[in-house]
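FAQ: What does the model actually see?

It sees only this:
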Amino acid sequence: NLHPEYVEPLQVVKYTFGQEFQPHYDWFPEEDLTTGGQRISTFFTYLYANCSEGETEFINIRFDKSLHTKFCDILLCDRKSPQLGLRFRPVPGNSIFWYNINQQGKGEPLTLHAGRSPSRDGLKIGLNTWTRLHRTIFAKRDDPESF
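And it is asked to produce this:
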């Protein structure tokens, strides 16, 4: 039941070998809230991936063998897993969804995540979809003075 005006313009990202997005949150510090208010949720969809690496890692959520091993088709499960955050494989067509804020409306620390680099000669293309607390108001492309 989400109204389209609560969704930011979609963002496509492309990663090649050596490119990654360092650990970050998708929510904003309260003093940095922009038009549309806080980012409520994130969908990250893998559009294309021809790599064995390039996972999305949630740094503050540790891999738990007893809980996560049954999801090794979508999670990276290797000998390093217990020492690293939860890592989602770049499987084309799959999406990861998470809430950026908690029930009190504060940024959720467990959402600290990073876009890891694809393997050599690999390519990963993803789609970010962010929902906001309020209707978003973004510059119109046909109005050059709004940029």
